[in-house]
Amino acid sequence: MNTGSLDSAWERLLQPPHCRLASEIEPVEIMADNRPIFRKCVAVLRQYMTKGVSARAPLKGFLFEGPPGTGKTELAWQIAREASLLIPPGKGCVYVVYLDGASIASPRWGDAEQTLVAAFSLHSSPRIEEDSRVVLVFDDIESLMLARSLDIAKEWHFSINAVLFHALDRLDSSKNFVLATTNRPDLIDTALRDRLYSIYVDPPSKEALLQVASGLLRDMGDIDQPFLDAISGRVGKRLDEMDSPTLRDVQRLVVMECVESGVWEL
Q1: CA dist 265 to 7, 54, 219, 232, 255, Å?
Q2: Pairing of strands 94-99, 19-21
Q3: Omega of the bond leading into 17 within 30 degrees of 0 (cis)
Q4: I need a labelling partner for 202 at 20 to 30 A (CA). Which of 63, 89, 98, 186 fits?
Q5: Are 204 and 37 within 8 A, CB to CB?
Q6: Domain boundaries of the chain, sorted by first residue
Q7: Calpha distance 143→198 (Å, rounded)
Q8: Domain 3-200 annotated CATH 3.40.50.880
Q9: Interacting residues of 154 by C-beta distance below 8 A, sequence separation 6+
Q10: CB distance 178 to 168 below 8 Å
């Protein structure tokens, strides 16, 4: 890739919604079930980003696997935000680059590969603060990097995979780090698993979902305690009726219970 095309790709990536400063990510309380994962990942980033781990570090990033609605993407965002708090003042910033099928796919041959190369070299761009770090968040990574053994994989996927594997092999983990999510681990190429550390994110427990519900209710303004107790009780009963309730389920239940209980007037 020549300098002009790389500079152009950097410019695109630095525009919303692809890129933002990690310090600007809104803090969100992590579900209790996911906090051990959060602490483990932050401990790795602390060593990598503040101790200057070399480019030969064997761990290049994490792959969060699990069903939809387990908080995988939010977990990635909050880990990236926490990474920004590890960097001493005046020692650079942490940028987060969000990549999914929409941000990579292009009708023009070579554009997707160019975007990937630019993402992995963004820390070298003169357009960002010197000595900055970059966390790359690949959401639903199976939509970009299908296993080469699958019948549905096309030449486009082979090319994308080759660029990604090469970039990961050369990755300087003190400057770049990868956080990826997937709901379909069966579609992930084994070569990607070999480069990222897989962590299974379990479906949330009822207790964790009720804690989320309590937090949402606190954020919704002044609600009298009797109403809070009643809504929490009804949300708990409805969760019991579900086979595998998710984070999104409890968010919707809280909103609808506020309406149906009369807290929010019709």
Answers
A1: 53, 58, 18, 18, 12
A2: antiparallel
A3: yes
A4: 98
A5: no
A6: 3-200, 206-260
A7: 17
A8: no
A9: none
A10: yes
Q: What is the pLDDT along the chain (266 residues), one digit of tens a residue?
A: 545 578 888 888 888 888 999 999 999 889 889 999 999 999 999 988 888 776 677 889 999 999 998 999 999 999 999 999 998 888 889 999 998 866 665 545 467 788 888 999 998 888 888 888 999 999 998 877 765 555 544 555 667 788 888 899 988 888 899 999 999 988 888 888 888 999 999 999 999 999 999 888 887 767 778 878 888 899 999 999 998 899 999 999 998 888 887 777 65
N- to C-terminal Cα separation, the chain: 58
